[in-house]
Write a structure and sequence with these properties.
One of its GO terms (cellular component) is cytosol. Belongs to the NanE family. Pathway: Amino-sugar metabolism; N-acetylneuraminate degradation; D-fructose 6-phosphate from N-acetylneuraminate: step 3/5. The chain is an alpha/beta fold. It has a single domain, classed as TIM Barrel, CATH 3.20.20. Helix content is 45%, strand content 14%. Strands 1-2-3-4-5-6-7-8 form an 8-stranded parallel barrel, surrounded by 7 helices. Helix 2 packs across helix 3 and helix 3 packs parallel to helix 4. The longest helix has 24 residues. The protein is globular, with a radius of gyration of 18 Å. The chain starts with a helix and ends with a helix. The structure holds N-acetylmannosamine-6-phosphate. N-acetylmannosamine-6-phosphate binds next to strand 8 and helix 9.
């Protein structure tokens, strides 16, 4: 079974913790991935070659690798150049996700030569896009699949608090490559809806693997209750 058959209609769990997050560390991310596997995840999305390597040892699921790296003066940070692609191939990533916007990249790299490089090296390429135009252009360049990861994270894309249902529905209806729904998916019913809209699979990150943010949803609800109580007393 190829990777796309394996992940079809399932949940990919993004296991990422940046250096400033409490769960940062490859050992911890490998345990997170193991928990996701036990919970029925069909694949893992992970950041850095170290995390990809450590997760590959811990689980038997396909791993979609990225390298988040900031270069001075550039907005693109998800696998911006061929250097990050090399790191992920070396770490054994089963697919490589990358920023597929048409914004400038460091070291003279372009979107076109980045995709060409991945294809030449035999890597599966997942295009992280923010708009329908970017999805169509990525497909034209020959990527293997598209993900809605960056909707709401480029200044010109739709900004909303939740998943970009409209982009998922439109893109799934038009693209010939599999479309992954990703970004701000926080409820199980959204997963069902996105799959019904035609998403090949759904990628969920923070709502499963960032406990500080999960905690915040509950503590915010408690605060809202407290302020409601206070206003009842004063009225
Ligand atoms: C925009 C960006 O940098 N997204 C990153 C991409 O890998 C991750 O920080 C997200 O956690 C991932 O896309 C999953 O999304 P969410 O955590 O919202 O379920």
């Amino acid at each position: 079974m190829n990777l796309f058959e394996k992940v079809r209609h399932g949940v990919v769990v993004s296991c990422q913790a940046l250096p400033d997050e409490p769960l940062h560390g490859s050992e911890i991310m490998a345990r997170m991935a193991k928990a996701a596997e036990e919970g029925g995840a069909v694949a893992i999305r992970a950041n850095t070659k170290e995390d990809v390597r450590s997760i590959k040892q811990a689980v038997s699921l396909p791993v979609i690798g990225i390298v988040k790296r900031n270069y001075d003066g550039f907005d693109v940070y998800i696998t911006p150049t061929t250097k990050e692609v090399d790191e992920l191939i070396e770490a054994g990533a089963d697919m490589i996700a990358f920023d597929a916007t048409r914004r400038n990249r460091p070291n003279g790299c372009t979107l076109e030569n980045l995709v060409g490089y991945m294809k030449a090296r035999g890597a599966l390429a997942m295009a992280d896009v923010s708009t329908m135009e970017e999805a169509l252009y990525a497909q034209q360049l020959g990527v293997d699949c598209v993900s809605t990861t960056l909707s709401g994270y480029t200044p010109y894309s739709r900004q909303n608090g939740g998943p970009d249902f409209r982009l998922v529905e439109q893109a799934a209806g038009v693209l010939n490559v599999p479309l992954f729904a990703e970004g701000r998916i926080s409820e199980p019913q959204q997963v069902a809806l996105l799959l019904a809209m035609g998403a090949h699979s759904v990628v969920v990150g923070s709502a499963i693997t960032r406990p500080q943010l999960i905690t915040r949803r509950f503590t915010s609800a408690a605060k809202r209750r407290t302020s409601a109580d206070e206003s009842e007393v004063t009225n």
